[in-house]
Specification:
Elements: H1 2-28, H2 30-50, H3 57-79, H4 87-95, H5 97-108, H6 118-140, H7 146-157, H8 159-183, H9 189-202, H10 209-225, H11 232-244
Length: 253
């Protein structure tokens, strides 16, 4: 009995120490903790929009975009803390992925809800949320919350395929917004502005997935258009598309 009580007391002390370590880590890394929280909100709002259990789904959609905008703004502050009013700083700003996605959130805050728009922001929020969650779990102890660790491991194991899917969704949204113009759901400016966003994503220095996926799609379309069975009208449409997007395609990495 004494051994059992001693073991229970030791386990409780280890748990309390873990929570104190976690608390101190969060205090020392306020911006990272803030990013973790805003990403959690993005995930919750996206799931609530797709599976409408409570609240107004229309408002929830925009809350997902706003929470992602907050994440992007915080991340941008983390990457470029010293704001300067110069051309050099503007150039650095436009190279940041967080700036791209702040721009992305602003684009779709002013158009009616489109479900596919939430796909990239949910994926990025999920990947970064789980990555930082693992760090927080390590503060509690390397054997704590094993079920959560298993989920995180599965997500990280599939991160390559998940990021490829995210890149594909970024690209697909452009022609989708063009179709929405013809249905009257968005204005003509939306695909034009999104085109500029996609160009920034293709030139990203930190994330080559969109650029590589873009070249894969172009290569696939080029192969399909050269098949003898391809009707001339479709071949001309594909060749026109390839010619139109030629200037958008930086060298793949």
């Amino acid at each position: 009995m004494a051994d059992t009580a001693s073991s229970g007391s030791t386990s409780r002390e280890v748990s309390e120490k873990g929570w104190l370590v976690l608390k101190q880590y969060v205090i020392d890394n306020k911006i990272k903790a803030g990013l973790w929280f805003t990403r959690l909100l993005t995930m919750m709002f996206t799931i609530s929009y797709v599976i409408p259990i409570f609240g107004n789904v229309y408002n929830i959609y925009y809350k997902a975009l706003m929470s992602h905008a907050a994440t992007s703004a915080l991340r941008l502050h983390q990457r470029l803390p010293n704001v300067q009013f110069s051309r050099e700083f503007l150039g650095m700003l436009l190279l940041e992925d967080s700036c791209h996605y702040l721009f992305y959130s602003i684009i779709f805050l002013y158009v009616p809800p489109v479900t596919i728009v939430l796909v990239p922001i949910f994926i990025f929020a999920m990947l970064h949320f789980f990555s930082f969650s693992l760090t927080l779990l390590d503060c509690l102890g390397h054997n704590s919350w094993w079920a959560m660790r298993l989920v995180i491991s599965l997500v990280e194991f599939q991160s390559y395929n998940i990021l490829r899917f995210c890149a594909l969704s970024e690209i697909i949204i452009l022609p989708f917004t063009v179709l929405l113009v013809f249905t009257g759901r968005v204005g003509l400016l939306t695909p034009i502005i999104y085109y500029q966003f996609l160009k920034m994503r293709l030139a990203s220095q930190r994330n080559a997935f969109t650029r590589n996926m873009f070249h894969e799609i172009r290569g696939l379309l080029s192969t399909v258009s050269k098949k003898p069975a391809m009707p001339d009208i479709l071949r001309k449409v594909i060749e026109g598309f390839l010619s139109l997007t030629q200037q958008m395609a930086p060298v793949p990495q």
